[in-house]
Amino acid sequence: MKQTALILSVAALHTVMACNPPAFGNCGNAQGSTCCPGNFYCQPWNPGYYQCLQNPAQCQQQFTDIDFFGNDIETVYGLQPSECCTRCSQTNGCKAYTFVNNNPGRTACYLKSGVGQSSTLVGAVSGIVNGGGGPSPPPPSSPTPSMTPSPPTCSTPQYGQCGDSRGATCCQSGQYCQPWSTNYYQCVQPPAQCQQQFTDVDFPGNDIATIYGLQPGD
User: Fold this and answer.
1) Could you tell me if 144 and 161 are in contact, meaning their C-beta atoms sit under 8 angstroms apart?
2) How confident is the model at residue 82 (pLDDT cuts 50, 70, 90)?
3) Cα–Cα distance for residue pair 59/215, rounded to 1 Å
4) Strand partners, 53
5) Do 61 and 128 contact (CB within 8 A), yes or no?
6) Cα gap 167→169, rounded to integer Å
7) How many CB atoms lie within 10 A of CB 173?
8) 165 pLDDT band (50/70/90 cuts)?
9) What is the three-state SS of 60-79?
10) CA 182 remoteness from chain centre
11) Strands across the sheet with 26-29, in order?
12) Of 16-30, 106-120, 126-140, highest mean pLDDT
């Protein structure tokens, strides 16, 4: 399907000139998070307070208010954010995790065999173990408690519609959900050199350049 030329950015759609929150300062709340200094990320502690913390040494990629859906290996309770990263790095087959601090009773660390499908989950933070790459084969099935159970087989056909601006659905393995307009998202293959794609997610700040008139694969 041919698409009209789209105005796309290789980085964020807006340029952040400087990050105002200081290291370990307040970076927002459940209504929205702001930026943090380099090598820091925005950690949700509760709905009213998010804080800039240093990236865990073994998990430099952190995604605030994002859940990596499915691919659960194990759920560990009572850890701190950096300990969740450490536990994942020490667990065979663990590539990524989702951490929820404001979980009823105690914190929850969901260890995952891959990134899978990302989705918005206010109050969560997801991380990727350094060198974790893309999804790995699912672990053997076992009855473990899970906030994000593995989804059923995706019924969206290849290159079919996968939602709109109100929400994206799944795509077949080897494809991701590409927003073309507010009314039409489509399952397409990821670029060969950029296999990890995150639909409806912005990486704020750290902009190098903005280039107009390209297609996603360009």
Assistant:
1) no
2) very high
3) 30
4) 41
5) yes
6) 7
7) 9
8) confident
9) CEEEEEEEEECCEEEEEECC
10) 21
11) 32-33, 26-29, 49-54, 40-46
12) 106-120
Rounded distance, CA 106 to CA 79, Å? Answer: 8
* Residues 137, 69, 62, 90, Cα dihedral to 10°: -40
- DSSP annotation of 48 reads T
The structure tokens listed for 93 are 């087959």
Length of the chain: 218
Query: Hey, what amino acid is at 158?
Result: Q
Which of 18-32, 64-78, 121-135 is the least confident region?
121-135
Residue 157: count other Cβ atoms within 10 Å of its Cβ. 12
Residues 6+ apart with CB under 8 A from 53: 24, 36, 40, 41, 43, 81
Tokens in use for 96?
């990524």
Which amino acid, residue 40? F
In the block, tokens 């939602």 appear at 163
Q: What are phi and psi of 115, to 5 degrees?
A: -70, -45
Joined together, the tokens standing for residue 151 give 């989804």
Instruction: Flag whether the pTM goes above 0.85.
Output: no
Q: Which pair of structure tokens corresponds to residue 202?
A: 């912005």
The CA distance from 156 to 176, in Å, is 11
- Distance between CA 214 and CA 202 in Å, rounded? 18
How crowded is the C-beta side of 52, counted as CA atoms within 13 Å?
16
Per residue in 22-56, is it b (16+ CB within 10 Å) or e — as a string? Answer: eeeeebbbeeebbbbbeebbbbbeeeeebbbbebb
CA separation, residue 198 to residues 26, 204, 205 (Å): 25, 13, 16
